[in-house]
């Protein structure tokens, strides 16, 4: 049986600390400089990053960039180990909700002086994507790309059932009726095997934040001290999802979802799904026709979530100038165009978001909807202790979705536990 | 304990050369890290900011943190089912596998396969077996006219993961018991058959007492494994945001260290886990002196 050798890691840390202290001077033009860029991602992304790096190196002959891509889980473990050993990569990727966990602990370089030296460099970016990285002391990170959540739908499944495609401006009641009409027991064995709508009910991003906002609720208070998911308007949204799942049975519960390997939309078992642009490259291989439609409108209007993945520079980077030059290049027309063509996310640079590089990709879908969604998007919250809080709330509700616990009492308990996490991370 | 051959002269030198790499690894890898964990357990450390002293607060949290207490109770509950399960099932399989029929090595290999199969792949297959509507197990249950079971729902998940962990450990247990069974002199069985003993009398009168050393050893190993069990459990019970519906102590240590920026607390939990295992081992060795029969 495999065990986790924490102790080995600690020793590795101590050894790394011992030899990671020295810092080379450099980063100025002329002397050759080597910087490291680390990110999470799919191995397929490495080729695109290599192309970006070679463009960058052609424009900056004295800088070479070493790109390292890890999967999501190992990325954060690796990053924390490197930071603890004072040998962090020069530039590394950051998920906005986790940003303050690193920024508040002083692991990141303040980019404000570098931004000030490049007046106008942020002018072409969508302002809401910058929001997450703003602190009273300035920016300690910049967005690289962003995700808005929209509804993906399987056109073939709609056609077969004779149901009209969803249209922009639809409401949550429309969504519920459409989902109900598309929920079927196609094999006739007494078990539903085609679901109208699928969400990740444990995840706020493609799961529940959109409907909580659309019902006029909120997630946490602006000062990050109070959990708001148990407030009356949010509870209406929870009840709506609960009824779709347990009354209509048009949303599968987590136990059911896991039987399908997690992705019912791609496996052709779900007609609609709330999802971000990261799913587009794999769905472009789908054997059915599909498209996207904006999130529905709720009693308090239309709402979706926007989250930006970003860049930060390690506080102890030996080459901050070169590192910042690399960030600036990725935010330029050339860098953003390459990222847009990769198709995993939306470009933060407005001009590229309006260009064919983003709008015309392999999957023949209306990419413009991801951009237009910014008009009514709420920022996915950014606060210290996000991981633990999100687990208390998201995983805490899983027994409710699985039909093993009561919604009201579970929410009551979750709010207390979640507030305790916020207090601990004050 | 004084048996076996003793190294003499030049053999002593070679003994040192051969054992050296392992010993160095143990001193730096195991001993060094045990000490480091012990030191860290008295500190607050989030990996990013400087280490600050914490006194006994991490140890106080062991008794007050509800999430950790739940994990501790789960670990005990898991061990209480897993250890006897592995010992009994793998002994039973070993007795079956001890026969001299054709192709027995194929059966032995099949029972050993889980031990050499990736835990992640195994857990994925078990997830399919345990599926609520599409799982094979519920398919057979319903075709036999039984009520289907939601195997991985919170209330049943513990028993379901214990079954998978026992299944995964049969192979190694079987090897231990086969070694013990083979060591029993055949004269005893011949004498028993001359005296007309039946299968049960042979098993309880000869086999069982003479495999007590194997039972002891297997119980010890299974207990250590039970306290460190993590991979199958996590793979089968993990939830969307990284929690588990059957959190165990090793899981709690991992989460605190890597997800909750609480390396000091994780270290204290690791120390407590080690102390508990050491205490249990002491108890086992006391039992060994009283009950284990060495021929």
Task: Tell me what you see in this structure.
- The complex is a heterodimer of chains A (426) and B (295).
- Chain A is an alpha/beta fold.
- Chain A has two domains: 184 residues, 3-Layer(aba) Sandwich (D-Maltodextrin-Binding Protein, domain 2), CATH 3.40.190; 202 residues, D-Maltodextrin-Binding Protein, domain 2.
- Chain A contains 20 helices and 15 strands.
- The longest helix of chain A is centred in the C-terminal third of the chain and has 18 residues.
- Chain A is globular and about 70 Å long.
- Chain B is built from 13 helices and two strands; from the N terminus they run αββαααααααααααα.
- In chain B, a hairpin with a 7-residue loop joins strand 1 and strand 2.
- In chain B, helix 5 crosses helix 11.
- The model of chain B has no long low-confidence stretch (mean pLDDT 91).
- Chains A and B meet through helix 1, helix 3, helix 11 and helix 18 of A and helix 1, helix 5, helix 7, helix 12 and helix 13 of B.
Give structural attributes:
heterodimer, A: 426 residues, alpha/beta, D-Maltodextrin-Binding Protein, domain 2, four-stranded mixed sheet, 15 strands, globular, disordered N terminus, B: 295 residues, mainly alpha, MetI-like fold, two-stranded antiparallel ribbon, 2 strands, 72% helix
Summarize the structure.
The complex is a heterodimer of chains A (426) and B (295). Chain A is an alpha/beta fold.
Multimerization status:
heterodimer
User: What share of the residues of chain A lie within helices?
Assistant: 40-55%
Secondary structure class of chain B reads mainly alpha
On the 0 to 100 scale, the average pLDDT of chain B is: 91
* Protein chain pair with the most extensive contact, residues per chain: A-B, 46 and 50 residues
Helix content of chain B: over 70%
Count of distinct structural domains of chain A: 2
User: What's the count of strands of chain B?
Assistant: 2
Q: What's the overall geometry of chain A? A: globular
CATH topology of the largest domain in chain A: D-Maltodextrin-Binding Protein, domain 2
């Amino acid at each position: 049986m495999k065990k986790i050798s924490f102790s080995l890691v600690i020793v590795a840390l101590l050894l790394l600390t011992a030899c990671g202290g020295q810092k080379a001077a450099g980063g100025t033009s002329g002397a050759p400089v080597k910087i490291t860029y680390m990110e999470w991602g799919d191995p397929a992304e490495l080729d695109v990053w290599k192309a970006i790096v070679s463009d960058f190196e052609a424009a900056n002959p004295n800088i070479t960039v070493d790109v390292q891509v890890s999967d999501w889980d190992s990325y954060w473990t690796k990053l924390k180990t490197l930071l603890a050993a004072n040998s962090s990569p020069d530039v590394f990727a950051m998920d906005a909700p986790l940003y303050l966990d690193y920024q508040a602990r002083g692991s990141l370089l303040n980019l404000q002086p570098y931004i000030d030296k490049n007046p106008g460099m942020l002018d072409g970016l969508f302002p809401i994507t910058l929001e997450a990285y703003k602190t009273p002391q300035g920016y300690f990170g910049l967005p690289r790309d962003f995700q808005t959540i929209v509804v993906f739908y399987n056109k073939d499944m709609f056609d077969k059932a004779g149901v009209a495609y969803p249209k922009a401006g639809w409401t949550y009641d429309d969504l519920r009726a459409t989902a109900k009409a598309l929920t079927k027991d196609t094999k006739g064995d007494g078990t539903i095997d085609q679901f109208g709508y699928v969400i990740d009910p444990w995840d706020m991003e493609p799961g529940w934040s959109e409907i909580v906002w659309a019902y006029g609720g909120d997630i946490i208070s602006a000062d990050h001290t109070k959990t708001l998911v148990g407030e009356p308007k949010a509870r209406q949204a929870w009840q709506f999802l609960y009824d779709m799942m347990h009354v209509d049975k048009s949303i599968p519960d987590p136990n059911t979802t896991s039987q399908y390997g997690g992705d019912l939309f791609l496996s052709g078992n779900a007609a609609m799904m709330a999802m971000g642009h990261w799913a587009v490259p794999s769905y472009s291989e789908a054997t059915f026709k599909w498209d996207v439609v904006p999130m529905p409108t709720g009693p308090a209007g239309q709402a979706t979530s926007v989250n930006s993945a970003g860049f930060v520079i390690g506080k102890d980077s030996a080459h901050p100038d070169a590192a910042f030059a690399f960030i600036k290049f990725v935010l330029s027309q050339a860098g953003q165009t390459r990222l847009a063509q990769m198709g995993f996310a939306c470009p933060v640079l407005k001009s590229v978001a309006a260009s064919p590089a983003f709008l015309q990709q392999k999957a023949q879908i209306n990419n413009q909807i991801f951009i237009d969604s910014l008009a009514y998007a709420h920022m996915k919250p950014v606060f210290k202790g996000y991981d633990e809080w999100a687990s208390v709330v998201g995983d805490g509700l899983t027994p409710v979705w699985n039909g093993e616990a009561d919604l009201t009492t579970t929410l009551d308990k979750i709010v207390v536990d979640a507030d305790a996490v916020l207090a601990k991370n004050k | 304990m004084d048996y076996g051959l003793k190294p003499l002269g030049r053999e002593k030198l070679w003994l040192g050369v051969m054992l050296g790499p392992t010993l160095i690894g143990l001193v730096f890898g195991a001993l060094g890290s045990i000490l480091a964990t012990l030191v860290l357990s008295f500190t607050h450390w989030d990996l990013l900011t400087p280490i600050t002293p914490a006194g006994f607060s991490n140890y106080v949290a062991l008794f007050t943190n509800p999430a950790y207490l739940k994990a501790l109770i789960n670990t005990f509950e898991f061990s209480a089912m897993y250890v006897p399960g592995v010992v009994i099932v793998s002994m039973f399989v070993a007795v079956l596998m001890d026969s001299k029929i054709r192709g027995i090595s194929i059966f032995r290999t099949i029972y050993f396969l889980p031990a050499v199969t990736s835990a992640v792949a195994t857990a994925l297959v078990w997830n399919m077996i345990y599926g609520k509507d599409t799982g094979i197990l519920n398919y057979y249950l319903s075709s036999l006219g039984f009520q289907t079971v939601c195997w991985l729902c919170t209330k049943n998940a513990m028993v379901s993961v214990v079954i998978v962990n026992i299944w995964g450990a049969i192979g190694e247990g079987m090897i231990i018991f086969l070694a013990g069974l083979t060591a029993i002199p055949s004269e005893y069985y011949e004498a028993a058959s001359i005296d007309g003993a039946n299968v049960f009398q042979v098993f309880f009168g000869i086999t069982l007492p003479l495999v007590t050393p194997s039972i002891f050893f297997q119980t010890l190993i299974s207990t250590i494994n039970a306290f460190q069990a993590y991979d199958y459990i996590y793979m089968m019970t993990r939830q969307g945001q990284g929690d588990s519906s059957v959190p165990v102590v090793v899981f709690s240590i991992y989460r605190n260290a890597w997800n909750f920026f609480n390396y000091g607390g994780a270290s204290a939990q690791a120390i407590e886990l080690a102390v508990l295992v050491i205490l249990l081992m002491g108890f086992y060795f006391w039992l060994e002196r009283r009950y284990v029969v060495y021929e």
